[in-house]
Each structure stands twice: as structure tokens, then as C-alpha cells.
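Supplementary Methods S3. Input chains for the assembly prediction are listed below.
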Amino acid sequence: MLQYLLRRAGQALVVLVGAAILVFALIHLVPGDPVRVALGTRFDPEAYEALRRASGLDLPLHEQLVRYLSRAAVGDLGVSFRSSQSVFELLMERLPATISLGGAALVVGLLIAFPLGILSAIRRGSAIDHVARIGSQVGISVPDFWLAILFILLFAGALRILPPSGYVPLSEDPLEWLRHVIMPALTVGLISGSIMTRFIRSSTLEANDQDFARTARAKGLHESTVLRDHVLRNAMVPIITVAGIQLASLLAGVIVVEVVFAWPGLGRLTYDAVLARDYPVIQGAVLLVAAIFLFANLIVDALYAIIDPRIRVR
Amino acid sequence: MTSASPVEPMERSLEAQEPPEEGTRWALLAAIFESPVTVLAVVIIAIVLFMAVAGELVAPYGANEINVMNQLQPPNLTHLFGTDELGRDVFSRVIIAARVSVQVSLVSVALALVMGVSIGLLSGYFGRWVDIVGMRSMDVIFSFPVMLLALAIVAMLGPGLVPAMIAIGVVYTPYFARITRASVLSVREETYIRAARSIGASDARILRLHVLPNVMAPIIVQTSLSLAFAILTEAALSFLGLGVQPPQPSWGRMLFDGRGFITEAWWMAVFPGLAIFLTVLALNLIGDAMRDALDPRQRSAIEARAGNL
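Predicted C-alpha cells for the full assembly:
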């Protein structure tokens, strides 16, 4: 078990270092001089030299790489070209907004996916099954920014019951936070829920088809007992995977939705940094998100190993 | 780090439909067109392709025909989808903008296909360090969410049509690489490959004539699904103002412009979005129909997207 997890962690670490090298390369692949580009019209030779030295861009390439990796390892991601603020601090400021939106969206997604996925599996071919299948096909095809705009038209425009955009921290005013989070969480949650519905449906069907389910029925167990103790329990492994991957990608920032709703999370920060050509911030955000993504995957792997002993030996 | 992999096998036993009868391509086509929904999807894509090729000829107005006197008209008989803030006809712009979506998705998916299939073929066929280097680098690209990586690439290259194509192409490369590699691994040990090798065929020849044709089915299915995701990604980039630049009309950019007039002119945002939605939906439906016919064991559009919102 421990060995399995260590091996997984080792692989994740290799990928993370690769990601860091790629992120480091980002700034050097910018055509021309990134500092010059970033300064744009505010260019003056003194500021230019200062910024270059501060970001270490005057050192030889291999020294820069070593410097970048060793600093990133302890959370030092450099300073913003724009505000001279520490990139790490900037990211940490934005993280709570992203986590609260990601969490709310996951709740919405699971609330849709669990009942719909299980019902459509046990009533295969019924009306609810068709609704679930059409719904999930629609859900993966709808552009999130369009869905967001439709919600704004409906809830903020026609019905006037929700604010069109903005953010209030959960710790400040939970009720106002809720009013602001409903639309973005619905947008992201509906899409993520339609993906999860499909997974839950097929893993429930799969478990329902197995010999152990037939045996349980044959020995006369009540259908609800069969479902609860035999089918759903076994369907859990793939469901946890997909929920974990979904959570990871929600935390990784739903850039477009954050932009539409002026939600000050990581996605919005990244977008603003791209517009401002603030390369250290872009690098930091990309690296943090990759780390979150890999870490979440690792947690999913660990959960797996706990739930399903067969996986440990593989 | 493919945590999704343990989920795949269940689709096999469950939704696996009978493959079409041995032999003809006609049987395959018949299987794909069996469902009326798929036929409808093909009709939608045919319309989109027609708009992309002949948009200017059939659109009632020009894409940038400005008529400020006529601005922000709600949908009516002369302007089916209304007019925008400059009095341009939204219906005509939606038609003409199809070209950009088709262009970007075709070019970027072709890019992803060539890069991904090459990496997957070499990794799967040669194994050892080629495999390790190839697949680990794909893992790295895979560890970034699609939109974020696309955004980072556009930040590097600057906004525009070509950077968007490159960004989308790079982002979807690992999908092709992984699918190709997995199929190559199962084909590699087949007798006909050993036979080819034993009569002295070169690796290049074996790859081209024996491996590639036998791993095509999943690649074709992935292509159709990737076209759908590429259109979504392009629209999102253009919506953020980082893809196609004005005056060239694009669905994403029209939505971006419409967002500013959301309370006065709902039609500016609703119709371009509907065009994106229907095109992507049609491509996903066709992809799933092809999967059922060609390669029932492969993941559906929905599962292919599990990790990437």
C-alpha cells in the first residue's frame, strides 16, 4: 500500500518538475524580450534593467533554470511585473474565491449526477434514462460562457432575483456569498454534473450486471439492500475517480466563468495577467494549477487503494 | 496519471454494441446513419460547412456592413437575428463566422493529429526510452487544464488566429498520443507484424503499412470528438478576446461583444452561442455514433472530457 502510494507520488513529482521546466521555458519562448514587452509604453532604461535583474533574466540560462526550480520548490515564484507584489501572495489571495466556487459547483454537480445517474441506470430505457442521456450530451456541448450569459439574462435580467456578477467572501457575509455564487456554480455545476451523470450511470450498470449482484438477488435480499450494499458500493470506485478529477479541474480554475461573473479567483487572475503580459504571474498560476491537479489525482489514487485492495498490487 | 483508465473497461461490457457485419464500408455507414439523431447531426454539420465555404454568397448582408441608424434592432423579418450595436446584421455575421470556427478546428486538430499520432506510434512501437520520453512529456502537457494551457500559449505568442490554432493543437496532442500508443501496444505483438519483420521489412515500412492502418479506428473517433472540443476552445479564446481579432467575425467574439449589451440586446449573445452549441452537439453526436460503429470499446465524448472542463 505504502509502496504503491510512494511510487505514484514519485511519478507525480517527475511530472511536476517537467511542468515547472515547461513553465520556466514559457517566458523564454516569448518572441523578443519579455521584460520589454511587459513594460510596453512605460519603457525606460532604468526600470528595464531593474526588472531584468529582479527577475534574474540577466543570468545565463542554466543558472536561471536552477534558480527558478529551487525557488519554486519553496514557494517563491518571483514578483509580478506590474505590481511588484510577490506572485505567491497574489495567488494565495485569489485561492479562497476559486475554492469556494469550485466547492459549490461540485455540490451542484453531485446533487444532479448522483440521483440522475443511479436512477437512469436502474431504470434503464425509461423516460428518466432518456432525459439523463440527452441532458448529459447537451451538457458537454454547451459553451460555459454562453450558459453563463443565459443565466444572467434569466436570473439578473428577466427575474431580477440575483446579482449579475461580483463576489462577497464567504467569511464576510455567507448569505451574500450564496446569492453571488448561485449563477457561476450552476453554470459550472451543470456541465460537470452532466459529465458525472454519465459515469455514475455506466458504473452502476456495470456493478448491477456482476455475479455478486445476481447472487445477492438470488438469495432473496430486498432490492434496496442489493442496491445499497452490493451495487452502489462497488460502483463507488469509478465514481470517486470522476468526482476527484472533476474537483481538480474545478479548483484548477474555471477561467471563462470567473471572467464572466467577475469572480476574483485564480482564473480571473490568470486572464488579467495574460492581458497585461505579466509573465511571472502567468507562470506562477499555471504551475500552481498543475500542482493542484497532480495532487488531486494523487489523492484519488490513494482513495482507490483504500477502497479497492486489488489496485495496490498492480 | 491516467486516473480515468480504470473506468474504461466497463463501457466495454456495457454499451458495447455489435460491430457492423464483416466487410463492406457500406455496412459501417449504414450503422452510423441508423439513428435519425445522427442524420440530423450530419445535416447540421453539412450546413455549417456550407456556411463556411459560401457564407458571403448566402448571407443577406455583409459581415461588416455598418448602419448605425439601424443599431440594436430586435429580431424581425429584415434582420432575423436582429442587429448589433453598429447596426450589423447578426444573422449574416453568424453565417459568415462559421468559416473561422471550421478553419481553426480543422487546422488545430490536424496539428494535434499529426503530432499526437507520431508520438504515440513511436512510443508504442519502440518502447523503452522512446516511450518514457514521449509519454512523460505528454503527461506534463496533460497536467495542465486545457483552457489554462491554451491561455498560456496565447500569452506567449500574442492573440490571433494562428496562435489560437497552435495553442489548441498542442493542448489536444496528448489525447491522440495516448490513444495511438495504447492501440499500437496491442497491435505490436500480432503475428502479421512479426511476419513483416521476419521478411526484413524496415521499421518505417512496418509502421506505415502494418501498424498505422490497424490503429486508425480509435484515431478517427478521437478526431471527430476533438473537432467539437476545438470549436469550444476556439470560441472560448475568442470570447476572451484572445482568439480571432475583429473585423473578422467569429462566434466567440460576437458573444464577447454581446455581453456589453446584455440587458438591451439579448439576441446579440443568444444566437452566436446557439450556433456554437448546435455545431458542437452535432460533432459530439457524430463522434459517439462513429465510436459505436467503429470501436465500441473506446470512451464516449463525455468520458473523453472528464478531466477537462
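Chain B touches chain A through 63 residues (CB under 8 Å). The two ends of chain B are 17 Å apart (CA to CA).
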